[in-house]
Every structure is written in C-alpha cells, then in structure tokens.
Amino acid sequence: MTAAVRSHEVTLSSSGVTPEDVIAVARHDAKVVISAEALAGVERVREHIEKLAHSETPAYGISTGFGALANRHIPQDMRTQLQKSLIRSHSAGMGPAVEREVVRALMFLRAKTLASGRTGVRPVVVQTMVDVLNAGITPVVREFGSLGCSGDLAPLSHCALVLMGEGEAAGADGVVRPVPELLAEAGITPIELAEKEGLALVNGTDGMLGMLLMAIADLRLLLTTADITAALSVEGLLGTDQVFLPELHMDLRPHPGQAASADNMLRVLAKSPIVASHRVGDSRVQDAYSLRCAPQVAGAARDTVDHALMVATRELAASIDNPVVLPDGRVSSNGNFHGAPVAYVLDFLAIVSADVASIAERRTDRMLDPARSHGLPAFLAGDPGVDSGLMIAQYTQAGLVSDSKRLAVPASVDSIPSSAMQEDHVSMGWHAARKLRKSVENLRRVLAIELVTATRAIDMRTSMSDGELVPGPAGAAVLEVLRATVQGPGSDRFLSPELEEADRLVGSGAIRAAAEQATGPLN
User: Gene3D superfamilies of this UniProt entry (predicted)?
Assistant: First the structure.
C-alpha cells in the first residue's frame, strides 16, 4: 500500500502508507482514493474466499463461529447473519465518544489493510469505508471496549456498523444523526456483509496505531518547543549557555537526541545580552539540573520517539487480520492482531511525556522562588504580597505533572482474559493509547505555563536593568508573538485565558515558528 498526499488527496495503492498520510486524513480531511490496481487485487483475493465459502472444509471466520465459538460450523444460509451478528454484538463500547481524529485514523488504517488484498473482502467493502471517510461521516466510537488484542474490536465494530447502515454517527458538521439519513445524503448504499467480511472489518490494531502516530507528531513539535522554553528559562534565570556546546554532547556522549536538543538551546540563546552579561564575575559554578541537564532529558525523549516511530512504521507496513490470505492463496490463522509491539511504545512515550513535563515544572518553580531566582520578585508578581503573580499557575502545572506521572503507569503489563479463556492474554494497547493522548495534552499545557513564566521573567530582567538585559533574537521573536495576545508583567488579572492562549500558540506551532525566524529550522 502507498498513500501519497497530493492537493489534499491520499491514494491507496500497493506499496505502503506513511505517518504523514494518516495525519492528513485524520486531522486535515484529506480525500482518500483507492487505485484501480489495489481494487483489482482485492477482487482477485476475494475469489479464494468464495472457494472456501463453498467448500466442505471448515474455515475460521468464513464457515465457523468466532473466538471461543470457532468450533461451530455455520451453514451457508446463515453466514450473512453470522457477519451481521458479529458486528452488532461486538459494537459493545461504553463511555464518552472518542475524538473525531481518532475515529478517522482508525478507519483509514483499516481501509489501508482491506485494500492490501490480504483480508479477502470484496472491493465494495473497502470502497464503502473510503466513501464514508470522504463524506466526513464519523461513527460514534466509545471510550471503552478494546483490550488491544484480537484487534480494537469494539471501536472497529462501531465503525463497521455504520457501513451496514446502523449504529451511531455524526455528519461533517459534527451533529449526530440517524445513520441511514447520513448515508443517503452522501449517496452511499449500506453494505450487506458476506463471508469473512465482518471479521476483516474489526481485527486490527488500527485504533492504537492511529493514536500512536498522532502522539509522535505532537511530541516532535512539543520536544522542540521544550528546548525553546528551556532556553528562555535559562535566560530568565541568568543561566549559562556553555553547557550546550556541541563538544560536550555528541563527542562525549553520542546520543543523537541529546545533541539535537543541546544544539537547539544553544541556537535559541545565541547573541543573548542576558546570557553574555554574567559570563564574567558570576560566582555560580554550575546551574541547577533542570537547566543544565535539559538536553539530556529532552534528548532521551527524542530518541524514544524515534524508536516509537520505527515500531509504528513497521506496523504501518503490516496487513493485520485473522485469518489472513497469504500470497499463495492459503488462508491462515495467526496472532498478528496482538497489540504488544504498539502497546509497549505507547507506554514508553507516556513515561517520556511525564518526565519532560516534570523538568519543565521544576524550571518554572525556580523562577517563581526569590531564594533561587537570582533577583526576580517573588512569583514574578507586580507587587508581591498584594499580587500573587504566577503562584497558582505553578499549582496548575504541578497538578498536570502529577496527572502525567499517574498516566505513566504502564497499561501493557496488565491483562484480563476474555472470550471464555480463548483470548487469555491481551495487550491493553488501546488503553495505553488513550492515556498517552491525555499525557501529551498535559505536556503541552505545562510548556505553555513555562513559556508564560520565562517570558515574564525576561521582561522583568529587561525592566530592572533599564533595558540593558534583553533576550537574544530568538527569545525576542517568541516574546513578540506571545505579547500580541498575552500580556506581560503587571498587576494580577484573570490569568486562565492567558494560559489558554499560550497553550494554543504552543500547540499550533506558532512558538516554534517564531524562534525559527532567528535560528533557522530547529531540530
């Protein structure tokens, strides 16, 4: 399979999909097109399933029941009902609806596998799923229902149910309406599932993989932003840039992520009058770990994200179903639906996200403490005592970090047997993905608070020095963008909207883009 984005169009063909393709469909509503070559391959493989369906030899999922009921032979006149019953019974999710982008990623990845010619569905099945995506129709998928093994069963079943003209779905406007009405408006005919097709629609790691790919994209942006906010904190705390010199990193400790983060911080601090002001006559020997070791922590996070991307890329190359149609036509049962590879890195990234947030919070706290901030007023308040400044912003940050530490407890070490002990070990990868999304969101907010704190500290340095101590060009560019919508130092005011705006700027990439005006592209 290959999926290439061209003018907001993704074409499924025979050589693979990329993480960028998934993001384009999930978040930017890129149109999906199936190549004639892929559809022909699907049609060709379907012929094997048709032969098995008419054979006297039982074949799992084609002429038998499912899971612990696999020993039950299903007569031919009941097999359409078998597929319908599978989807209806497996659409057993509960809880709040998951995000639209998650559902779109899940559906696109399942369509990718269906189009690979390894699942045995008819072309109409994959085409209908693509048509639903392109119409902007989003099945309602509930939070709970997947154990990350035998695929993301309930989430995928809720999507398959919509292809049948049943279940719950929202239109392109986000309003939940009757599924038959939504399909009719889009000119989509509900499908009548044939042998094997119900199973093929639900037996994949698509939900957890889609969330992993989006988390990787988000973390790449946030880790670069963390280098920027850490560098601004170094300026705010009169720290040194000498610990970020390249000869201290790749030459002495060759972790590529560490070297990349140190390089980012050094470039953000380049030509900073604040940093230059205390290179001579400063009695401090070393900065605190939260400043000095920022590249070591963020760099290790970068290397972990790279490892996660390697796993995700391998999973993208997979065609996961059970049973699966092999190139020679054999239909073989397997265990490739087990989500362990994806679940492990989802949990690993939750650890990373929590720790990067933790070190950022420590830098924030240092800037607010007059005993450690090297001359800044308590809590960066306009009139300490009368004003509380950013005191409670740090409380919010601490709460976010604490939540992320809780979310860092791995889901993949848990397993609750299901299906009458037939499925006696599961990955819990869906749950690992759900908590990672929350952790990444927490990290973004933590960095927004560090951004607000560091820029206020820099503004105060400038004011206290009668304009002599100013940030470097990168810091000045970030300040300009932030100050367009977020005020600087002054009397206490309603703070929450300013923190939310800083969060928006971080998440949109505006802060990174501002710094890169001075530094050029950052790592």
Answer: Fumarase/aspartase (Central domain), Fumarase/aspartase (N-terminal domain)
Structure tokens at 117: 């010619």
Distance from first CA to last CA of the chain, Å, rounded? 30
Contact indicator for 267, 522 with CB cutoff of 8 Å? yes
Question: How does pLDDT run across 468-511, given as a tens digit for each residue?
Answer: 999 999 999 999 999 999 999 999 999 999 999 999 999 999 99
Same domain, 296 and 175: no
Q: Could you tell me if 465 and 321 lie in one domain? A: yes
The C-alpha angle 212, 216, 221, rounded to 5 degrees, equals 150
**155 and 229 co-located in one domain:** no
The active-site residue, picked from 60, 289, 344, 395, is 60
pLDDT at 4 over 70: no
Q: Name the pLDDT band for 322 (thresholds 50, 70, 90).
A: confident
Residue 360 has pLDDT above 80, yes or no: yes
Q: Say yes or no: 87 and 228 in one domain.
A: no
Contact 59, 170 (CB under 8 A): no
Domain CATH number, residue 104? 1.10.275.10
- Both 323 and 407 in one domain: the answer is yes
One domain, residues 136 and 215:
no
Q: Note the residue count of the chain.
A: 523
What CATH number has the domain bearing residue 442?
1.20.200.10
| Cα(337)–Cα(203) distance, integer angstroms | 6
Q: Same structural domain for residues 223 and 177?
A: no
Q: At which of 204, 226, 251 does a domain end? A: 204
Is residue 60 flagged as an active site residue?
Answer: yes
How far apart are the C-alpha atoms of 376 and 392, rounded to whole Å? 17
Contact 352, 257 (CB under 8 A): no
Ranges 116-125, 175-184, 421-430, most confident = 175-184
Query: Per residue, what are the HEC states of 259-311?
Result: HHHHHHHHHHCCCCHHHHCCCCCCCCCCCCHHHHCHHHHHHHHHHHHHHHHHH
DSSP H helices in 317-377 = 340-368
Please check whether residue 67 is in contact with residue 423, taking contact to mean a CB–CB distance below 8 angstroms.
yes
| Domain region containing 139 | 3-204
Query: Within this chain, do residues 143 and 237 fall inside the same structural domain, yes or no?
Result: no
Q: Which of 289, 238, 301, 316 is nearest to 264 (CA)?
A: 301
Beta-bridge partner residues of 97: 142
CA atoms within 13 A on the CB side of 431: 18
In angstroms, rounded to a whole number, what is the distance separating the alpha carbons of residues 433 and 346? Answer: 6
Residues 6+ apart with CB under 8 A from 510: 481
Tens digits of residue pLDDT in 81-125: 888 999 999 999 999 999 999 999 999 999 999 999 999 999 999
Q: Which of 31, 34, 35, 23 is nearest to 7 (CA)?
A: 31
What average pLDDT does this structure show over 11-25? 91
